[in-house]
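Hi R.,

Quick one: here's the Taurine catabolism dioxygenase TauD/TfdA sequence you asked about.
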Amino acid sequence: MTTDFELRTRPLMPGFGVEIFDVDLKTAGSDARQKVVDLFHANGAILLRRQDMDPDDLMSFIGLFGEAEDHTQTQFTLPGYSKIFLLSNKIVDGKPIGAHNDGVGWHTDYSYKEEPVMCTMLYAVEVPDEGSDTLLADLCAAYDSLPRERQAQLDGLVLHHSYQHLMSTRQFGRMELSEEMKAANPDVFHPLVRTHPADGRKALWVSTGTVKGIVGMPDDEAQALIDELVEFVTSEPFVHRHKWHVGDILMWDNRCTLHTGTVFDDTKYIRLMHRLWVKGDKPF
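And here's the predicted structure, written out as tokens:
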């Protein structure tokens, strides 16, 4: 569905993402809310500042984009709201209430599943005065910038994604999975070049963390290519850096972006974010 209703916007960076102005998501009408959805699908990311959202508001808003997805680690979901995951270093009654430094390292969410999440939404409740920025990489611009010959070499390559590999090698929160977790998260295989279902644009859908190798390629050769491509897509021309303020809502399209969090002084500052996912479909 599209609408002729127009909103005031500006790009997050040339050719990627939009900041949307003058919309209060809690009270916005259906035309404005639908336009927000349309802008998301067309631009890869959206930002709305100065929002005041309770958990029910967040669930209502995320429902405009599709069905909310569950989270792999359920111990850090908001009580009473299993679809809202807490990212935080806050300690309450001697226990952490959220996952800390969970998103540090270039990745795309849920890529270890057959149907990775379509989009990720973060809502800022408490933010540090410095650090904890979120970086987004435009994978469509990266693919489009390649020579045709290089595109042809990469088209058709298949990446081996593994949750077990991620959790045993990640920088923060490393852990060995239980047999139950391994069974619930088997390895999957996704194309290196992904096609966006909205308009057919192609993304250089490489990642770190979950990517264990490339099908049919020796491990050392595959890792060298993965490292090369990640360095390329996360270079300055393709990356937007978001500095958080309380009330920010940032959403990005996992079908055409990579993202990473950044660290902050967790002895000095508290960070609390609400994260929501929307179910996706199988990459092609």
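The chain has a mean pLDDT of 93.

Cheers,
M.
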